[in-house]
């Protein structure tokens, strides 16, 4: 007695077709799974056996062999339980009708036959739909994310019995309708930049960062509003497009952090503690999962008190900040996760926090200051487009009743600048100025001979790297976009240079 069904498995965010073959032959009772299964699938033998028996079906007594093909691909995850159980039931004649091979079964089984929610349902359904499959049986608790996919039939079930009854035509499962809306509602926030008194230069820097997707480093004494400004950055970023929202939702689905939520409409804001490990930041594990840099995709990665992080952890940030993706390698293959985000970091200038402050005297020695600042290496520092110094707020600003610029006003300016970039780069596969590189940088950034001289002087004075030089050009383009200018002017170049001239005070003393 033989059966063959189809399920799926993820590598990164890509779903692959997996054939589940069941053969029940005469002989001593045994239950073997072949096809390069990992430990979680080997354990599924006990779950499947108990689920079938406790659902009221007889478990076959012969020699049972389950083959998971292709054999060269390492099979991982408990979501294969349902397909294994259904293939055994069909081979044993429990299903009256032959199960069509175009049906996809995804789900983990509890010992009593209940279907348990699994991770990665959304990307699996999208990938299998793209391969031509339309009908999916999934756990009912995964319904919300599954309903985001169009042009498919989703059958959510609570138990193994419900699926068998549906296949036999005894009691049909109501399929769920797609409930996605490409016109997303604007997210709401409890914080606003108008809460910050004064600090107009800091607000401007964050506005530039949001408009061009630039990384920003803020250094200053305690209480100067660094963290307050950073946590308000999501309020001025443009609303996510439907495509961006789907990208984020797929990542959170794979990471098991989607919960009962459907589509993610808020741009991610990830703020890992300074005790975070390399694996938690970049991703990894026996079955590779996305880390903080991927969970921040299309949003913000915020690292507060940057020098308190392990130096090795900080150094692994360099590659995803530059490439916009993370490659996690294992013996059995590689997983790639996207990681395009704005990096925002805040730090004190020294251990006591008051080096260079005019408000309070620093108690650190020169060696202590140097050791503290040296935790941020030159290559990492070079990857931040904006280096900003935050100064203490003046008492006049705190007591002033003047209206501060709101997040709404800043978001409108940022959105207009992003719209200009979207039109400019519509045929180039990039979205924001920070993604410009190589030939595209030369194609879209033109400056006058006078401005070239200014940049040459600054390059020699501050010992800029080639990367820093290119970042200044990209910053200038963003500032021009915020001003609604087609051409980069001298004022835009000078403002961009101000965001890169801070190093002399702290790192090149």
Automatic annotation (TrEMBL):
GO MF annotations, alphabetized: ATP binding
Every AAA+ ATPase domain range: 212-394
Domain of life: Bacteria
Matching InterPro entries: AAA+_ATPase, CHLI-like, Mg_chelat-rel, Mg_chelat-rel_C, Mg_chelatse_chII-like_cat_dom, P-loop_NTPase, Ribosomal_Su5_D2-typ_SF, Ribsml_uS5_D2-typ_fold_subgr
Similarity field: Belongs to the Mg-chelatase subunits D/I family. ComM subfamily.
Official protein name in the record: YifB family Mg chelatase-like AAA ATPase
Organism: Citroniella saccharovorans
């Amino acid at each position: 007695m033989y059966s063959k069904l189809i399920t799926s498995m993820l590598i990164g965010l890509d779903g692959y077709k997996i054939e589940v073959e069941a053969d029940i032959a005469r002989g001593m009772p045994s239950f073997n799974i072949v096809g390069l299964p990992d430990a979680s699938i080997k354990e599924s033998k006990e779950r499947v056996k108990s689920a079938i028996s406790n659902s009221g079906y007889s478990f076959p007594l012969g020699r049972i062999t389950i083959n998971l093909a292709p054999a060269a691909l390492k099979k991982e995850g408990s979501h294969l339980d349902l397909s294994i159980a259904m293939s055994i039931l069909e081979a044993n004649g429990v299903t009256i009708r032959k199960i069509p091979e175009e049906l996809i079964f995804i789900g983990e089984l509890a010992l009593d036959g209940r279907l348990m929610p699994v991770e990665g349902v959304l990307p699996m359904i999208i990938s299998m739909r793209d391969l031509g499959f339309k009908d999916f049986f999934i756990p009912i608790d995964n319904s919300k994310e599954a309903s985001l996919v169009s042009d498919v039939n989703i059958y959510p079930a609570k138990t193994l019995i419900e699926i068998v009854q549906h296949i036999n035509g005894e009691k049909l499962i109501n399929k769920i309708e797609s409930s996605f809306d490409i016109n997303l509602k604007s997210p709401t926030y409890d914080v606003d930049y108008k809460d910050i008194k004064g600090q107009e230069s800091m607000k401007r820097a964050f506005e530039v960062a949001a408009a061009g997707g630039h990384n920003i480093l803020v250094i200053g004494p305690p209480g100067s509003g660094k963290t307050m400004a950073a946590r308000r950055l999501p309020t001025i970023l443009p609303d996510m497009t439907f495509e961006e929202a789907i990208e984020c939702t797929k990542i959170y689905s794979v990471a098991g952090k989607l919960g009962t939520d459907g589509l993610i409409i808020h741009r991610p804001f990830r703020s890992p503690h300074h005790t975070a490990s390399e694996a938690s930041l970049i991703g990894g594990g026996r079955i590779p999962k996305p880390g903080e840099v991927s969970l921040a995709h299309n949003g913000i990665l915020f690292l507060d008190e940057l020098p308190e992080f392990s130096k090795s952890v900080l150094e692994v940030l360099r590659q995803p900040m530059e490439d916009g993706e993370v490659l996690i390698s294992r013996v059995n293959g590689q997983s790639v996760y996207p990681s395009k985000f704005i990096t925002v970091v805040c730090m004190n200038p020294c251990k006591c926090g008051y080096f260079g402050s005019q408000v309070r005297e620093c108690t650190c020695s020169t060696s202590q200051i140097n050791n503290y600042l040296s935790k941020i290496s030159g290559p990492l520092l070079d990857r931040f487009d904006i280096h900003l110094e935050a100064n203490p707020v003046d008492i006049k600003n705190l007591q002033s009743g003047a209206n501060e610029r709101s997040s709404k006003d800043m978001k409108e300016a940022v959105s207009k600048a992003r719209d200009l970039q979207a039109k400019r780069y519509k045929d180039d596969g990039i979205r924001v100025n920070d993604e410009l590189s190589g030939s595209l940088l030369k194609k879209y950034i033109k400056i006058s001979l006078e401005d070239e001289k200014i940049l040459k002087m600054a390059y020699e004075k501050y010992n800029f790297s080639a990367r820093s030089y290119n970042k200044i050009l990209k910053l200038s383009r963003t500032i021009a976009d915020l001003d609604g200018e087609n051409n980069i002017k001298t004022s835009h170049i000078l403002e961009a240079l101000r965001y890169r001239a801070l190093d002399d005070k702290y790192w090149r003393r």
